[in-house]
From TrEMBL:
It comes from the Bacteria. This is TPM domain-containing protein. The keyword Metal-binding does not apply. Gene3D superfamilies: 3.10.310.50. Residues 1-26 form the signal peptide. The chain crosses the membrane at residues 168-188. Residues 650-669 are annotated as: Disordered. Residues 653-669 have a biased composition (Gly residues). Residues 36-154 form the TPM domain. Keywords: Membrane, Signal, Transmembrane, Transmembrane helix. The keyword Transmembrane helix applies. InterPro entries: TPM_dom.
Amino acid sequence: MRLARLFSLLAAILTVATLVAPTATAEPPFRLPDYVTDNAGVLNDKQLSDVQKAVDRLYSDRHVRLWVVFVDSFAPKGAVSWAQDTRVVSDLGDQDAILAVATGERSYAFLVPPAAAGGSSTKVDDIRRDKIEPALRGNDWAGAAIAAANGLAALGASSGGTAASISWVPVLIIAALILLAIVLLILWSRHRKRKRHEAEVAAAKRVDPTDPNALASVPVDALDELSRSIVVDVDNAVRTSNNELELAAEEFGPQQTEPFAKAVENARITLKQAFNVRQQLDDAVPETPAQRRDLLTRVVVAAARANRELETQTQSFQQLRDLVINAPDRLDALTQQLVDVTARIEPSQQKLTQLHSEFADSALASVARNVNAAKERLAFADESITRGRELVAKPVAGKQGELIDSVRGAESALQQASSMLAAVDSAASDIRKAVSTLPAAITDIQNGINQAATQLAQGSLANAAELSAARDAAVKAVTAAQSAGATDPLGAFTQLTEADAHLDRLLAAVAEEREAAERLSRSYDQALFAAQSRVRSVSDYVDTRRGSVGPEARTRLNEAVRQLEAAQSKKKSNITEAIAHANGASLLAAQAQQLANEDVQSAQRAYMNHYGGVGRSSDMGAVIGGIILGNILSGGMRGGMRGGGWTSTTFGGSQGSSGGGMFGGGGRF
């Protein structure tokens, strides 16, 4: 009896103790209402505020959100499982970490996505083991949460914080020294380059200019300078030889001077070709180094060969015109020529005065001084003839060169004087011809102005600004011609033709641009239609088979849609790029279709393998179409299935993260 009473008393004591002792109430996973949730009531107001500040500071520094929750118990779930489910229910993402603590059963979980952890699971474990667990073990609940926030914040901190303390003065001094050294190096390099260039040019002048193989060793820059100088020298030689040829032809007749005439004409043609190549080198179109060397070599060789051809006839020509022997007769002829040209002075002066009364000075700029200049040449010719007669009358040894110079000087002076007076006569005829043709030129350029206005009104021109400027210049030229055409017809005519030529060139380019734009527009329409058709068909295919199409096909389709949108948005700004986007969308859509086909076929095989051909085909169609999901196809498709039995997919899949791939962990403390 006593033993029974003892057991009854002990049972009563245990019952009372159980009823009186504090209990840990289990709390299922729930949607977190705020960043700090204290359902266990372990934080006072100040501690709650401190934790909230640490969480806010973490977000301000790294845009990482830390969710802290205190409950009494996770039972029957484990800490990590409870935290994972809470993440899902709370819609937490890749930048959301969670610290869940069950204070009553002394367990916790600290889960951090890789993106929020900076990709380091080791550092997350260090925070959990070295910061959070010691604080929890000492019942420092607020300290554990603050340690978690500060630890995550430290993961994004820069390790180069001491760099700001470095003094800038030494850096600036070093930079200045480096800059000075660079400037000195540049100056020295330029001086050295100039000296080297001068030496290369001197060496180039010693090379046979008619031999392309010899010129191959000459640097390009030296070859360029050699080509510039040689065309000037040879051009002067051709001009001088041509003047001498005219004089010789008058004296000896064309038959005797034919060899020299051929040499001069060949030299003129060859030199013209050299100048054409030189113009190609000087235009705005760049050449490759190889092309430039080839063109320069052609210039030098052509000019040098022209000069050499003239030299081959020099000796025979000098013999033909033995001015020493024929000097008396030649001086008599020059005297008669002097009289003839002098007689033309007064009529040319009257004609020039008449032109000045009719036209502006600018129209006569090229001939305004011709009469006075002709008088100067005649005076020089008179002096040369007089000196030549003195030398013929009293021959002196060693004076033959001066006699030849006197005769040649008189010849050249008389020829120039005659040309100057002839220019006055031709100026009158040229000006009057310009006056007569000016109205037709104005009409022609006005048509170009109207065409330019039409093209500019249509818009969408790459060279709209240049065309507008050319049109304005043409309008200005027309206005000037209408107001000043009578006083300066040649100037007005020249301005008109230049403006008209520039405007015509741009209008031709606009016509080509319009044609090219139309071709591009047609290509764009075709590419866009093909892309839209493919993307639409693949999208419909995926939509009606969404239960079996995996991520690869969907990714290609999504990128195809993006490329299609880019093609549509860039049509006006860059149609060529828009066409490329449209073609890219078509290609991606084709890849998505192929991947989707493979997914559907794989799903069908998996279904048939599972049921062995038994079952309703409508069920398989519903699974393939994503109307219902079942684990029978798990592993049979790229995406797989989750859950047990059949589940409707009308309202989409699960939300948030299941916790897979998370850093951190949990346990007891």
